[in-house]
Amino acid sequence: MSKxxxxxxxxxxxxxxxxxxxxxxxxxTAGHSMIPEFISNLxxxxxxxxxxxxxxxxxxxxxxxxxxxxxxxxxxxxxxxRLTFLSGTDTELTSGYFGAGxxxxxxxxxxxxxxxxxxxxxxxxxxxxxxxxxxxxxxYRQQHAYQLIGMAGYHDQSSDRGVQHFGxxxxxxxxxxxxxxxxxxxxxxxxxxxSVYGYRLRQNANSEMLGAYN
Length: 214
Description:
1 helix; globular; 2 domains; 15 strands; mainly beta; five-stranded antiparallel beta sheet
């Protein structure tokens, strides 16, 4: 009858490069796993501003970032939340967004949207005045471009629920440090709670990705 192995023996058998911390999470060197590393959080609890920004969340440490959370609003008509990248405090990248989005709701209403050198990326569409939209997206830092791919689940003012998929690219040479969220109805941002995680990928030396990877 074989003896049951404890966790240290299992990790040794797997030949992992990493450590086991006190809460049981395995951290590894770049490329040996896809463990997300928490970086920062953007939080807004009330309807007091027309926009909110998170700075210092992008750097050369990571190649890929996951931005996940919720956005809400407070107004009588349907609105949307837009994202722009930042290179400094209140220094927005407001041009050069190329891409498209597609939405479908439970009434079979479909909407296509596109930006050709647009000023921002729409990350949720037709937001109701109550509740929030869940947004999940990945930001890829490349040598000559930045790419954003994501999706959102939304609830519009007519009580229709739906899903939105989007993908955008920007060829700016700016060193981006953060992002800004705002809506198209002015001073009505609320219930924003976004977390940023970083991934360090394993890649070859000729890769197009930015960041530390060795």
